[in-house]
Amino acid sequence: MIRITERYIETGQTPAVAGVISLTYDERKRGRLRAQTQSGEDVGLFLERGKTLLDGDLLLAENGNVYAISAAPETVATAQASEARQFAQICYHLGNRHTPLQIGELWVRFQPDHVLEDLCRLYGLEVVRESAPFNPENGAYGGHSGHGGHSSHHHGHDHSHDQSRHDARERYHFHAPDHEHPHDHVHLHSHPHEH
């Protein structure tokens, strides 16, 4: 097994890459991991913990070889907005939940979660589960990866979001902070309640 122990430090020259290691998002968060390169070599990652590997990152093995990280396709939920305000609203609400998000042009992608998917449908977005690389944003202090990417797509059918919006509104309740009524339902807002 080839031991990979550090991130490759850029020297200004493009290194020869000995292999590509495809990892899912959850695997890229781990500092210790056994994997295989795309050509079948066994590798072990023994990296400093706490920093997620990004698609395109280069790693240095103890034998001096350089390996590239590739974001492996995995099951994700992709929500497509139809206009900018709708897109901004869903980014705001998903961001408040501190969930990893990949953001594209009028679309957001996240790990499958039926509550988040229903929230997207509530705002009228079309949600599909698909297999795609997942490259979420690093957050305000993690730097900008610039590795997101998704071509716009059409699924070849037209349908109304009215029923899914109605179903989600039945399940979730949105209102202003100064409301007063019994609390026997789920709330999706962030203010303290006196009960």
How does this structure look, described?
The protein has 195 residues and is an alpha/beta fold. It folds into 2 domains: 2-71, Urease metallochaperone UreE, N-terminal domain (HSP40/DNAj peptide-binding domain, Sandwich), CATH 2.60.260.20; 74-173, Alpha-Beta Plaits, CATH 3.30.70.790. The chain has helices at 25-28, 84-95, 114-122, 162-171, and strands at 2-7, 17-23, 32-36, 42-46, 58-61, 66-71, 73-80, 102-103, 107-110, 126-133, 172-173, 186-187. A 6-stranded mixed β-sheet has the order 2-6-5-1-4-3. A hairpin with a 5-residue loop joins strand 3 (32-36) and strand 4. Residues 143-195 have low confidence and may be disordered.
CATH superfamily of the largest domain: UreE, C-terminal domain
Which fold name is given in CATH as the topology of the largest domain?
Alpha-Beta Plaits
CATH architecture of the largest domain: 2-Layer Sandwich
Number of helices: 4
Number of strands: 12
Structure class? alpha/beta
Major sheet: arrangement of strands = 2-6-5-1-4-3
Low-pLDDT ranges: 143-195
Helix content: 10-25%
**The CATH class of the largest domain:** Alpha Beta
End-to-end gap: 59 Å
Compact summary:
The protein contains four helices and twelve strands; from the N terminus they run E-E-H-E-E-E-E-E-H-E-E-H-E-H-E-E.
